[in-house]
Amino acid sequence: MSSDSDRECPLDGDPHQQEMVPSKKSAVLVDGVVLNGPTTDAKAGEKFVEEACRLIMEEVVLKATDVSEKVCEWRPPEQLKQLLDLDMRNTGEPHHRLLELCRDVIRYSVKTNHPRFFNQLYAGLDYYSLVARFMTEALNPSVYTYEVSPVFLLVEEAVLKKMIEFIGWKEGDGIFNPGGSVSNMYAMNLARYKYCPDIKEKGLSGLPRLILFTSAECHYSMKKAASFLGIGTENVCFVETDGRGKMIPEELEKQIWQARKEGAAPFLVCATSGTTVLGAFDPLDEIADICERHGLWLHVDASWGGSALMSRKHRKLLRGIHRADSVAWNPHKMLMAGIQCCALLVKDRSDLLKKCYSAKASYLFQQDKFYDVSYDTGDKSIQCSRRPDAFKFWMTWKALGTLGLEERVNRALALSRYLVEEIKKREGFKLLLEPEYANICFWYIPPSLREMEEGPEFWEKLNVVAPTIKERMMKKGSLMLGYQPHRGKVNFFRQVVISPQVSREDMDFLLDEIDLLGRDM
Ligand SMILES: Cc1ncc(COP(=O)(O)O)c(C=O)c1O
């Protein structure tokens, strides 16, 4: 009887599927396959790589700084499917056709390195991390053992050490993860492991109702982590924030007492340094005092705001971060290290990360290797294969120096200040709040609404303004910035400044363009 997979093989009946015919007398055949010599045409492959690199250079790198280029070439999904020739066929396609496809992929992709891409918490082109990426893509390493990734493991160690220094710890540990969301999840699990170390073997049964606290402005990854780890989203206590989006410490303490009264077991407080929408920084010192009083693990999600630590002028935003037990920090955001580049840093030096995550696979982490196996750091991760993300940041840091990174942060925040002042001056623009960081949240009020009283009808009408302007800007391809409704506030724009390619002129353009696109509403 044939299996389903036999019956459904897409290659059945394909005229191109033939047995190989040996051309040499000495050819060795196994199952009809000639085994002599390599079968790839290396010369043709090398030429293809060269031509594709030239295309990337011409169409991506050289155009990245040109504001006359479009940020995006918008097409609706059904149309884009037709344009892209997505089908994968039984026979391969010639190189000239593949290069055409590469050109199409570039053309219809959003140019996140364009100086007028302000849509997310990452942007711009960093030449050094780009080269690091090219190198790691070409070398294809996996960062788990020193034997396969000697350089990248040492680079990761050096970068983590430096980040730990900037947090203000004397020593610590860490690991690069695929995303700040994953770092937050690692931290939550680590805090729980510290609270009940036998959870690793015994699992969840028998545990009290574990509860954690974070601000109402925290990143949504906290909820995801709680559900993924079996803590449950109902056991994430959202602490109220003040008018600027900062956690209110007194509310935190009240909620901890309340949870204890209800018989729950508090184990973690997660503060945010640089919230996703408003860019707010929680008061870490006060929160650390509370954590100390209650014996709770303090995790700081500094995925976005951590980069302010590089600036002597702005690092005060994170005052008290050295008191955290763990910190998530994404150099791929403000420091432009290329997605993904995200570290979880841990103050503990008792090998907690390893104790919590290791599985001691004997085929990979043999203890009798001929070198110091403490460099086989992969068992601190929940991953097996892992990308050398620290290398991107290392290259950028090497190229710019600490002073260059500081300048990048200072400039982004100075440009943000400029935009804030321009918004205040211009008719029809209204700031939501005075920003602390590089998130500038504002409404555009079109002329037809400017005389209207701020009642329900006004807010209802204003709610459609940002989405409509966003649609228009994307169809035109002139710029991209995000909008959202947020905690009772109707849709507003969130402008994020990151890239050193961005200039004062781009800030002026942004406001002019919004006004141009929304003036008739
Ligand atoms: C505060 C904060 N934490 C965590 C994350 C998640 O980071 P990632 O996108 O790398 O998973 C973000 C993303 O924007 C964020 O703003």
From TrEMBL:
It holds the Pfam family Pyridoxal_deC. Its cofactor is pyridoxal 5'-phosphate. Gene3D superfamilies: 3.90.1150.170, Type I PLP-dependent aspartate aminotransferase-like (Major domain). Residues 1-17 have a biased composition (Basic and acidic residues). InterPro entries: PyrdxlP-dep_de-COase, PyrdxlP-dep_Trfase, PyrdxlP-dep_Trfase_major, Pyridoxal-P_BS. One of its GO terms (biological process) is carboxylic acid metabolic process. The keyword Lyase applies. The modification N6-(pyridoxal phosphate)lysine is found at residue 333. Transmembrane segments: none annotated. GO terms for molecular function: carboxy-lyase activity; pyridoxal phosphate binding. Keywords: Decarboxylase, Lyase, Pyridoxal phosphate. PANTHER family: ACIDIC AMINO ACID DECARBOXYLASE GADL1, GLUTAMATE DECARBOXYLASE-RELATED. Belongs to the group II decarboxylase family. Homodimer. This is Glutamate decarboxylase like 1.
